[in-house]
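Here's what a typical entry looks like (GntR family transcriptional regulator):
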Amino acid sequence: MTTTTDRTDPMASAPSRDGSAGSRIATRLRDEILSGAYAPGARIRQEDVAEQFGASRLPVREALRILESDGLVTLVANTGAWVSHLSLAECEEMYQIRERIEPLLLRYSLPQLSPETLGRLQHLADEMQAGPDVETFLRLDREFHLLSYSGAVTSILGETIHRLWNSTQHYRRAFTTLIGPDVNRAVHYEHQLLVGALRRGDGEEAERMLAGHIRRTRLELSQHPSLFAQ
């Protein structure tokens, strides 16, 4: 069973699963992919990664397998590795899955959220509303949502949602860059309403707010098919 507990990214894959070189390389590459240093569809050459980290091919291959299990890399036998890329249809499907299962994880999490965690969620919502740059917003937004799930104890659901978050990270960045002031205000308003529902212990309202919050991003992305052109 996997237990998620209060920490900055409670569903992040364990970066040092066995303390191996492959795990350490995977951690660095994961950060680079999630930060946008690698674009979707970009090829990751084993020899370049080995040179970058002063490692042999073996730990690099291990790192790429870890990242594939995280939903960040696609491995093609006898060909190579690429940063995972979604079509519009795939992205919409993933968001529809998220709309349905993330509220369930939030339901599991809510009874275990401490006053300190709820206070941190409020602080993050306020900090995002203050208008940070895109990359700062993405970091705070990720911490906000994953922290809200941190009370959950699951064997499958948490890992599934973690993989979906990783796979859609680039498209959240595109959404955040594209949205106008009206949508931006709505996003912050939804964050505040979600925190309010969690503080009241109103799980039904929190689930409803979260589903609508995810749906907003899906519908906005569907208006920009050019983002998915390879």
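The chain has two domains: 2-83, 88-228.

More examples are in the samples folder.
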